[in-house]
Design a protein that fits this description.
Layout lengths: L10 H13 L6 H14 L4 H4 L36 E5 L2 H11 L7 E5 L5 H8 L3 E5 L10 H7 L4 E7 L8 H5 L5 E4 L7 E2 L2 E2 L6 E5 L12 E5 L2 H10 L18 H11 L2 H22 L8 H4 L4 E2 L7 E2 L5 E5 L17 H12 L12 H4 L6 H9 E4 L7 H25 L1
Parallel strand pairs: 2-3, 2-4, 4-5, 5-8
Antiparallel strand pairs: 1-9, 6-7, 6-11, 8-9, 10-12, 12-13
Length: 428
């Protein structure tokens, strides 16, 4: 079975970790500082791989294979880029910790509201609640699956202190519209590292940006996270919050440090980021071609017969660069009906059938978001989120996929589409 996700690891990554083990310094130290500096260079548009050359290794080379306390409010604005305001970075233990500490460093807490999308992993909810604030849920955009700026606008009150904007599946959210609200925007770049919006790196637009190095993220260190911002004071507050030892007071702090072991692995992976992204885009082009040939607008003459499957490839926006952290298709019936949080429906029958058919052919596909946040809370509405949740399916796409595995995925897509067309013709 081809797994839905898999990290791309090689001998070079193992060597980087072994060097740290040999040094005897395992906790936060020189490698963490080096990783923070590398992200500062990345956000400034410099080539990180030029600083960290990566020798060939055992793994595949992607380049060669086709709290509840209130705090003093500190809400800096979403500043445009300026040479006088360079980036700063702070590495932490996870992407969730990065969000939590960023909210605290901004002074967000009790009686404050933070707008987040419902269609997202639960990490955002927990980070906002841990800061003592109230999460306010927004619907998502029907094309990019990102937070819907028009819905965000309806939710803004005099208690709104921040908007968290995840760049889901590798494509940036509508940052121009979100920044226009003049409310601090925290970019969640856990799935968009290396992507761009209007030719600038994602993470360089809001008051701060958070990244994740979880095992299946764009670069992997098992666990880990990092915050970048042009506000040096904000980063210093995060550095203070991430460790509690040898301080002059007992203000609330945490153990949120990244180890040098994790930092060394993340740094080694970061050096391969351009190759990783190039590989992802190449695989996405192959999937696009397969869906074009065998999907609903294909050379198959009976388009009506394909409607019950209705595969729609990921939609791209011209002003942003999609890195394809996930390749998410919509599997729709001819007349989709939106479910509400009160009924028992989850995934559509067509999406379930698609996942089962691909699994039968040795390809593990998954729902890209386990459950929207509003469904945990029993709330109704969120029509776009509901539709996407019921019909979106993620097909395996990651740099470690071999050409042979990609061919298997393509064949499974073709056979599944043909099977659906034949089934529909029989029913007619």
């Amino acid at each position: 079975m081809i797994p839905h996700s898999r990290p791309c690891l090689g001998d070079d990554d193992a060597t980087a970790v072994l060097k740290v083990l040999g040094s005897g310094r395992l906790v936060q130290g020189e490698m963490v500082a080096a990783l923070e500096a590398a992200f500062v260079r990345l956000m400034a548009g410099e080539e990180t791989n030029a600083k960290f050359p990566v020798p060939g290794g055992r793994g595949r080379n992607p380049a060669s294979i086709s709290g509840n306390e209130s705090h003093e409010i500190h809400c800096p604005r979403n500043d445009p880029p300026s040479p006088a305001r360079p980036f700063h970075g702070a590495a932490v233990s996870s992407g969730t910790m990065a969000l939590h500490l960023t909210l605290l460093a901004l002074g967000i807490g009790r009686d404050d509201e933070v707008v987040i999308p419902s269609y997202v992993c639960a990490s955002l909810w927990h980070a906002v609640r841990a800061a003592g604030a109230t999460p306010v849920l927004a619907d998502c955009d029907g094309e990019t699956f990102n937070i819907c700026a028009a819905d965000v606008e309806k939710l803004i009150t005099d208690r709104t202190r921040a908007i968290i904007a995840p760049h889901l599946f590798g494509q940036a959210a509508d940052l121009d519209a979100l920044l226009a609200f003049d409310i601090p925007v925290i970019e969640d770049c856990a799935q968009s590292l290396g992507g761009t919006y209007r030719d600038r790196p994602t993470g360089g637009f809001g008051v701060a940006a958070v990244f994740s190095f979880y095992a299946t993220k764009v670069i992997a260190s098992g666990e880990g996270g990092l915050v970048v911002s042009r506000d040096g004071g904000l980063i210093e507050r995060i550095r203070d919050l991430r460790e509690y030892d040898e301080k002059d007071d007992l203000s609330l702090r945490f153990n949120g440090k990244l180890t040098d072991i994790q930092a060394a692995l993340a740094l080694s992976q970061l050096g391969k980021l351009p190759a990783f992204i190039a590989r992802r885009k190449a695989i996405a082009k192959r999937y696009d071609r397969t869906l074009k040939e065998f999907g609903p607008a294909s050379r198959l003459q009976d388009e009506r017969a394909m409607k019950p499957l209705g595969l729609q490839p990921p939609r791209r926006r011209d002003d942003r660069d999609h890195i394809f952290f996930r390749y998410v298709v919509m599997v729709e019936e001819e007349a989709a009906k939106v479910a509400t949080a009160g009924d028992t429906m989850s995934m559509s029958a067509e999406a379930e059938a698609f996942i089962a058919a691909m699994g039968k052919r040795g390809v593990a596909c998954r729902r890209p978001v386990f459950r929207p946040l509003h469904r945990y809370l029993g709330r109704t509405g969120f029509e776009t989120t509901e539709k996407i949740w019921r019909h979106a399916v993620s097909i395996p796409l990651y740099p470690d996929l071999s050409d042979e595995e990609i061919t298997v995925v393509e064949a499974a897509l073709e056979e599944t589409c043909r099977e659906a067309a034949g089934r529909s013709a029989d029913e007619d």
